[in-house]
Design goal:
This protein has 239 residues and is mostly helical. The protein has a single domain, classed as P-loop containing nucleotide triphosphate hydrolases (Rossmann fold), CATH 3.40.50. It has 13 helices and six strands. Strands 1-4 form a two-stranded parallel sheet. A hairpin with a 2-residue loop joins strand 5 and strand 6. Helix 5 packs across helix 6 and helix 9 crosses helix 11. The chain is globular, with a radius of gyration of 19 Å. The two termini are 33 Å apart. Keywords: Transferase.
Length: 239
């Protein structure tokens, strides 16, 4: 979105000195802050880029029913999502067990509310309005980062020009935003926190399949069966 002002291969790119949450603020916090939230939002460069954990069903109409607003949803395999969530939450709840997180998920609930409604809300919206809602899978991004960066650029109305393709700009974006690059930056190692969480807590492993190191085969089969039931008929699966 900002590669015109900040070339991804440039030494002074904001992502090299700022945590990603400083570059892409939480929409939830801006909307909730009646004091300075509106002013902070107005100060963001247009088109504004924000992130959220809100369910699609509770997004403001100015977003969900606005043809000029693009929504990108990134979905991860629920089994890996639970492992990531557990490690992340233990930053502030060190006594939390993985079993606690797993059992809540089997009941259909995570710390952001109903799990399957969350995923299916955006999945269904992407099928109904593919021009305004893009559903991306984390694992597919890992397998083909450059291809998915091109897809994302096209979706947000910023496709790579022939000159940019020749110059390898898509790969520059991938290098800049790679997990290892982000994790290795000094700003993301410091104990600077956003809310309760230190910057380092946002970067653990970033891999697919780590769930196998935390779940027994019985736990995996149980969650797979729940997913099969909850997602049946939607066209979405994690098999």
């Amino acid at each position: 979105m900002a590669r015109g002002a900040h070339p991804p291969a440039g030494a002074g790119h904001p992502l090299l000195r700022l945590n990603p949450h400083d570059c892409v603020p939480f929409m939830d916090i801006l909307f909730a802050d009646a004091g300075s939230g509106s002013a902070k939002m107005a100060a963001l460069p247009s088109p504004r880029l924000m992130n959220t954990h809100m369910h699609h069903s509770i997004l403001p109409d100015s977003i969900s029913n606005n043809p000029g607003c693009k929504i990108v949803y990134i979905c991860r395999d629920p089994k890996d999502m639970l492992v990531s969530l557990w490690h992340f939450t233990r930053t502030v709840q060190p006594n939390l067990t993985f079993t606690d997180v797993f059992e809540r998920a089997c009941e259909g609930v995570s710390f952001n509310g109903p799990i399957w409604d969350h995923v299916l809300g955006y999945w269904n919206a992407s099928k109904e309005s593919p021009e305004t809602v893009l559903f991306l899978r984390y694992e597919e991004i890992l397998r083909d980062p450059v291809g998915n960066v091109r897809k994302l650029a096209l979706f947000v109305g910023q496709p790579f020009s022939p000159a940019e393709e020749d110059a390898g700009v898509a790969m520059d974006v991938v290098r800049l935003c790679s997990f290892d690059k982000m994790k290795g930056l000094e700003v993301n190692k410091k104990a600077v926190s956003h809310g309760l969480f230190p910057n380092s807590s946002y970067f653990r492993r970033g891999e697919a399949g780590d769930w196998a190191n935390h779940m027994t085969p019985e736990m995996a089969r149980r969650l797979d069966a729940i997913m099969e039931e909850k997602l049946r008929g939607s066209g979405l699966s994690f098999a």
